[in-house]
Specification:
With 183 residues, the protein is an alpha+beta fold. The chain folds into two domains: 65 residues, Winged helix-like DNA-binding domain superfamily/Winged helix DNA-binding domain (Arc Repressor Mutant, subunit A), CATH 1.10.10.10; 97 residues, Arc Repressor Mutant, subunit A. It has a three-stranded antiparallel β-sheet with strand order 1-3-2. Strands 4-6-5 form a three-stranded antiparallel β-sheet. Helix 1 crosses helix 3 and helix 5 crosses helix 7. The protein is globular and about 55 Å long. The model has no long low-confidence stretch (mean pLDDT 88).
Length: 183
């Protein structure tokens, strides 16, 4: 049986890695423990993070890590700096996948790119070039899609006006045929 201290450390790692809300039920499944243990570990984690730069955010039955309101000015400065910089090559790759594929999960993006894409997704969300929504099929999964602002920035009325749209769609279909094998 895992101790509360061990669970707290594991939950913190999961929430940090996921960088999106995770339900208690999902944490129970990931960590192979009972709900009461997860709830106690979450309570302990929340108390220990009090007064630090990171807080435990609770929204209904979902938990995530976020920066503390006390450091909001620093974070606002970082965001402003990021908005003034050009997009990285990684962010442009992620943006291209989302623009050409449409609704896509982080897992699909990472499968196509072969690397973790959390930072790029965050950078694109902050800039308002993409948005995320909860999947209708699985409420634990977020889907990323291009925004109208992205279309305005690109100077196109619809995604179909993007260069080589049809040929990219053919290639994406090939990738979709492989994706079920990775699940």
């Amino acid at each position: 049986m895992k101790t509360i201290e061990q669970l707290k450390i594991e939950i913190e790692a999961v929430l940090f890695y996921k960088s999106e809300p995770v339900s208690v039920t999902d944490l129970c499944g990931i960590l192979s423990v009972e709900k009461e243990q997860v709830v106690q570990a979450l309570k302990t984690l929340g108390e220990e993070l009090s007064g630090r730069g990171i807080v435990l955010v609770v929204n209904a039955d979902e938990y995530s890590l976020a920066t503390s309101p006390e450091v909001s000015q620093i974070i606002e400065k970082i965001v402003a700096d990021e908005l003034n910089r050009d997009l990285s090559q990684a962010s442009l790759e992620v943006l291209s996948i989302i623009a050409y594929k449409g609704l896509v999960t982080r897992r699909e993006i990472e499968y196509i790119r072969g690397v973790n894409s959390s930072y790029s997704l965050r950078a694109l969300l902050v800039r308002g070039l993409i948005e995320k929504e909860t999947s209708r099929l699985d409420e634990r999964v977020f889907l990323y899609k291009p925004t109208t602002d992205l279309l305005h920035h690109l100077g196109v009325a619809s995604l179909e006006e993007l260069p080589e749209w049809k040929s990219v769609q053919v290639e994406l279909k090939k990738v979709e045929e492989v994706l079920p094998e990775i699940e």
